[in-house]
Amino acid sequence: MIINNQKFRTIWPNDGMAAGSRSVSIIDQTKLPHAFKIVEIINMSQMIVAIKTMQVRGAPLIGAAAAYGMALAMQDNCSEEHLQLSAKQLTQSRPTAVNLRWAVERMKQLLLPTPVELRLEAAWEEAAKICDEDVLLNQAIGQHGLNLIQRLHSQDLNKQHNRQLNILTHCNAGWLATVDFGTALAPIYAAYDAGVDVHVWVDETRPRNQGASLTAWELAQHGVPHTVISDNAGGHLMQHGQVDMVIVGADRVTSTGDVCNKIGTYLKALAAFDNHVPFYAAVPSPTIDWTMLNGVQEIEIEERDGREVAWVTGMLASGEVTEVNILPANTKVANPAFDVTPARLVTGIITEHGVFSPNQLRDILK
User: Fold this and answer.
1) Topology of domain 160-365, per CATH?
2) Residues at site: Transition state stabilizer (predicted)?
3) How sure is the predictor about 158, in pLDDT bands with cuts at 50, 70 and 90?
4) I want to staple 331 with a disulfide (CB 3.0 to 4.6 A). Which of 53, 91, 170, 327 is the partner?
5) Strand ranges across the sheet with 259-262
């Protein structure tokens, strides 16, 4: 992504230092859209805090962050005991997104049989490889999704001359949720760059407002036309023919095609199903949990601090960024961070291998 005429990824190692004293830089997503701030991470404990507080967030990105967390852990101690403990602590930092566990397990499988004296350099190399692979996966998702968007746009043009294609998305599944390019937004960027007349309805995505704060910000950086809407407006727009397709990301997809994504996704899928609007999830294959069959019953849903619901961050007229409490005193708050959309409501899963209906998903393994 280009920000102020400079190319950025969301996470990167700081080069030019010895393997034993390297650090990792991240874009602090809790400061967006009002400030663009880069934070330097120097140890695994700081990376865990960054994951928990959502300075880094999005399933693919927290997988990459966890991989670099393992590399930072090896700077302190390359013993097997420390390796296993670090892996456990990183895995427990956030429970829902499968990419985090996948990345940690991949690092363990590489590092455990590696001689102790070679583990540090091997860890940095593998973390960088995971990041580079994520970029390629997302670029491929973008191309497969572009084909879908182009076909749908051609169909609409046959019905109505010069019609803009309206795509609704929920939460943030753009480059900020990955190492680069994004998942759900990758096809949109590809379509825009290819000259397709697209417009994006951006759900605000309470309680953390990742749509309003992050998706709207990065779409503006790329120049893609978009409009922020309240979370409850999507169904109304669908009823009136103003949504042509829905594309969301996911934190975990089961082998049967159930999609676990940011809270509120299930309601969008229900509205899309009722109004015959195609509903797609865009995910790289590491987001698919081949061990799970029933998302509603098996996926652990993260319950986050109620403060996220009670307090809203915004900018005052003076330019000061602050938090305000919107609830009556002593009000109880429940804050489930994700929900599960059953496969029966999903039109297709866009992956780096192509687009699959939920019941075809296991064809990826063949």
Assistant:
1) Rossmann fold (3.40.50)
2) 171
3) low
4) 327
5) 288-289, 252-254, 259-262, 338-341
Contacts of 67 (CB under 8 A, 6+ apart): 103, 104, 106, 107, 126, 127, 130, 131
* Tokens 């990167």 belong to residue: 12
Asked if residue 114 has pLDDT above 80, the reply is yes
Q: What is the mean pLDDT of residues 154-163?
A: 68
**Helical axes 98-111 vs 116-159, angle rounded to 10°:** 150
Q: Is 58 annotated as a binding residue?
A: yes
What pLDDT sits at residue 162? 62
Q: Which of 17-26, 135-144, 238-247, 328-337 has the lowest mean pLDDT?
A: 17-26
Write down the pTM of the prediction: 0.93
Say if residue 261 carries a ligand binding annotation.
yes
Pairing state between β 348-351 and 338-341: unpaired
pLDDT of residue 364: 86
Q: Is 59 part of any known ligand binding site? A: yes
Burial class (CB in 10 A: 0-12, 13-18, 19+), 197: middle
Q: Is 262 annotated as a binding residue?
A: yes
Contacts 24+ apart (CB under 8 A), 157-166: 162/197, 163/197, 164/197, 164/198, 164/199, 164/225, 165/191, 165/196, 165/197, 165/198, 165/199, 165/244, 165/245, 166/198, 166/199, 166/200, 166/201, 166/237, 166/242, 166/243, 166/244
Q: Are 325 and 311 in contact (CB under 8 A)?
A: yes
pLDDT digits 0-9 by tens, 199-224 = 999 999 999 999 999 999 999 999 99
Which residues are tagged catalytic?
Answer: 251
Fold topology of 2-132: Four Helix Bundle (Hemerythrin (Met), subunit A) (1.20.120)
Residue 252 labeled ligand binder = no
Is pLDDT above 90 for 177? yes
Residue with the two structure tokens 């938090």: 323
Burial class (CB in 10 A: 0-12, 13-18, 19+), 39: middle
Domains 2-132 and 160-365 share a fold: no
Instruction: Give the start-to-end residue ranges of the domains of the chain.
Output: 2-132, 160-365
